[in-house]
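re: that chain from earlier
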Amino acid sequence: METEKLYYADPFLTDFTATVLDCQPDKNGYLVTLDRTAFYPEGGGQPADHGVLDRAAVTDVHEKNGVILHNVDRAVEIGKTVAGAIDWGRRFDHMQQHSGEHICSGLICERFHCDNVGFHMGADIVTIDFNADISWEELLEIEAKANQYLYENHPIDIQFHRGAELEAIDYRSKKALEGDVRIVAFPGADCCACCGTHTAFTGAVGQIKILAAENYKGGVRLSIVCGGRALEAAQAMRARQAEIGALLSAKASETANAVHRVYDEYTALKFTHFGLCS
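^ sequence. v structure.
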């Protein structure tokens, strides 16, 4: 019997009750199967939810043939009704990152007629791979457009489609899909087949920041952060800038000029020391 996926019915659900259908020893503790769950299993580039089932810590979640398996650190009684609670901070972070990735990918694929060929949501950054050569200046334009899209606070539409209805939709997908397909639509920015969790409105993503771009397999790999991660990145950069400014006796806004000045002074001193200039 497939597990009822509460995270699709309500991705903002943090607490729920469920019946334990099975609990088996596993190399990392126990594998628990419930009749229903709000825990999102790893998939589609998005990590699994963490949390608790009664007193058992949920450390990983994955899906096999429609059944959601919960890795927990202690046994749970079969047949018992348990209370589940997900780590909302972790889930919301993933929702922000995943929604921001969709917006960036949709805007980039539309403008450069390319494909998103890779996506990974790490603990610190999100990486996205595109099979196109995109300049940094062009990426900054995309970043500005993506953030403007957030400010407009568009609703995100998520529905299952199949058959002729699915064929009529122009959506991104890495492979041909059949049956009930979950389509996540960001009106005017992206439409993609996706199994992940997302914010209800784009404004909840907060901010999108492209940190870096590097050549990768003939295309480009972006490193981005969204929401709370973007704020943390900005704060960290400001702290580093202030620290450098203090070392150079310069205002934070003038650190670049101060570094150039010190470099020029060092270069002149080195050349003078070795008799390379008068």
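The longest strand covers residues 15-26.
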